[in-house]
Amino acid sequence: MPVLIHSEPAPGGAPGRVVHLTLNRPELRNAMSLAMVDALLAALSEAEAAGDVRIIVLRGAGGHFCAGADLKDMAAARLAVDGRAAMAAVNARFGELCVAFAGTGIATLAVVEGTVMGGGFGLACVADAVIAGDSAQFRLPETSLGLVPAQIAPFLVERLGYAEAKHLAVTGGKLDAREALALRLVHEVHAAGALDSVVQRRLLEMLRCAPQAVAATKALLARSRGQAPASLVAEAASVFADAVTGPEGSEGTAAFVGKRSPGWAPQ
């Protein structure tokens, strides 16, 4: 199976589930095949439809996160009757994956180790939070191969800023874990042996946030990109009013006054 899927109850007694998606082609450093893209999209769709998934954790098997596109898929597309159209379709499908994970209302956490290259770099950019092992090596090699980091380009700019994304692109960028932390590509760096305990701590932190409020906040932040604040005043007020008068707002306020944890949080 190109992706291993494991679901578990949210830790700390919080309601809902955490879904772990593990890229599972360790012999190829988890290179991204079309089958893997389809499996990830299907898993995300299933998690969204379930309604009780609080967090999705994305990581790779065998000590690596993802080595980018599978060259066998690219070669097969190149040999198709219309090779250009086939290559565009393969590339677009990966783009759909990035857009889907960037746009989901479910909180996402990526755990990256070893090789984080090309499309794997892009997947790290679309996660809400990223924990890196100290072995992580980020590479953006496309331009050094005569290629373009096409589908991940918008997410590189969003995560790193235009100037840094451009610098990495024109130098065939390489970053180790500490350099990635300095750029805020990742949010924490730890030794491999500490990653599981750090993931558990992060899950507990994220579960303190109300799921519908998280989804609404992510959606509003996404709409805020490239828009003047004045254009969002009425919409933001409506989103806030829905939240404060809804069940989560009522429960959160009651919990604060009562000096207790709200019902969605670890107890």
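(the above was protein one; protein two follows)
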Amino acid sequence: MENQRSGVGWWRFAPPAVAAAQPQKRRSRPLIRSAGIRFALIYAVVFGISAFLLAFSLWYSTVGLLQRQVEISIRNDSIALNEHFTTGGLPSLIAAIHDRMTDALDADGIYLLLDPLGNRIIGNLDQWPVGLTETSTWYQLPVKRHGVNSVALLRASTLPGGDQLLVGRDVRARAELRNVLRDGLIWALGLMFALGIIGAILIRSLFRRMIRDISTTTRAIARGDLTRRIPKTGDGDEFDELAEIINDMLERIARLMDGVRQVSNAIAHDLRTPITRARTRLEDASLHAHSLDDLQSAIERATQDLDGIVGVFEALLRIAEIEAGSRRAAFCKTDLAPMLHDIDELYRAVAEERGLTLHTQIAPELPLLGDRELIQQAVANLLDNALKFTAPGTTIDFRARLEEMVIEITIADRGPGISPEDRNRATERFFRAETARNTAGSGLGLALVAAVAQLHHGTLHLADNHPGLRAMISLPLRGEALGPKPQPPAKG
């Protein structure tokens, strides 16, 4: 009763399974933990720092250029006035300063000449600037020229005889220009900051849209909808490339899931009959066997059925082992020609017993880096199929050649063949065409051949032989296979 009255108490004492089944609110994730937010912030910070450094460098270089131009002008003017004093004495210097003050082209020039006692001789300043105490040093000080307050860049020098010469330039206009540049820099930084925020928002929305598409698709697949795929924008960018890669992966997963489903259905369908037959024989023998021989015969037939089932599972395990690539550890340099001749000798006798002719053409040397045993089993499977489906009195072609760094092993029969619709599924496990329904077999032979070819980076190609089936295994050569020919083991 207490738990019924209090929802908190009921939740606290509910079993784990019941608690897990209760709807839970989705926790809101902090913004800083969002990959899109972090990516956008990083972009905004990098863009802002880059823009600030660019704007500051432009502002600093512009202001520095103006400062250097003024300094060069003052220094050159001071040198020229000192030359006047050297050549013509004080009268020549006074005349030169007077000419400069009356020249309308240089209205920003500042001059002041004092005698050793500090009396003003000539100049356009009312008095010596306060704070200017050293010569040959740059000063930027407030001055009063013609009764108007201003700012000047100044440099003083001492002439022979003790006279003091002050040369400078009015930089009030340049200071105003610098302020304009500073204000423009501030506005530019503000605009760049706004653009950075807008760009970050756009990038975040693009990033979020792509992640949302991936999340939506994977969530639907996790719920069991294997048909969902990530949509592409069609722009051909990296997001489309990522979507294509993920879609290819999903296609492969869907094919593998479909293959597992088909294999499960095939195992349940194809193995039910021999298992039921073996069980029926054993039950019948236990109820109706009249002698030890009858019981022994029933057990032997049931054992044969069970051996066939074990053989099917062994073939499945072998195919799975080959497709997993674990057999590559057994790769070695080998010559397939002697092995193919041995297979030809073995199957030629079987073909003659069945009234068939085995026409063989094998190249003298077929060097390959691979698993000799697996290739031997793959070729034997193809020959078994050819012997099984070829009518007496016809020919089976068995050829092996080296063509443009590819070993081609071809087996062509004159049997019923496989229809074009069934060829695409012929290498699926347990698949059997309608023409092979009444023949012995498990439908794993071509699947094993295709797995062996794929393990060696090759292919199995099925084509019409008009009539019959032409099966060709293509095994590309690699550099390791072209080394020294392996020596046969010494006979002891």
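Reviewer note on protein two: The chain is about 55% helix and 15% strand.
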